[in-house]
Amino acid sequence: MKRFALSASILGMLLMVGPGFAAVTLDFGTGATSSPTGDCTITATASACTSVGVGILKVTGDGTYNGSYIIDGGTRGTEGGILSFNTATNAITITGSIDCMPSGGSNPGSGLGACSAANDAAFTQLVPSGTTLLSGTGTISGLSISLGTISSVSFTDVDSKGTSLLAALGISTAGCSGGLCPGWDLTAFNLSIQNTGSSYTADSTDVLDAQTPEPTSILLLGTVAFGVAAAMRRRTRKA
To answer: Domain segments of the chain: what residues?
Structure first.
């Protein structure tokens, strides 16, 4: 009976910790209709791209807010968000608005997330135009150039998300300031760039990042681990 009670209490504590570690993932990428050209400068010492288009935001790990949303550049319902990065300053930003998106195309879910079916049909704007959706300054590396194409770019640091974006997705904005919320890890940055004679242009992009565990969740997990270890030691001594 005591063994059952111990197991049940451990399971209960782990269930308390679980939701805190269900990381939300935000994937900014090329949409069905966007054309992410932009202007890119590639040199031996530094590389940068400005005005590269991103059209779709895919959200996972966020419960009922999961789904696909349009990133617009000022025209509601039209893909047109902007990605920029610079290896000299190690900076990356994504700006735009977030709109609901009807079913079909790259959003077969419809009616998901923060949008009802009516919101989808009306391309309801969830985040204002010109919002900084992602902002980070870290170590940009991993540029792989072959025959005029950059196949991948790595960004190894934390980044921040726009407060209004997180609020629209039902994610806590506690501790945020200046319109940005820290605590995210940029886990993947893939950018395909074509050499068009004297310049480079992007033809696809994918920026994926995940929410880092909250400090309270880490503390709770540590408390659980300590409690389990102590309980096991007591049982060993009694045996």
So the answer is: 1-23+214-239, 25-212
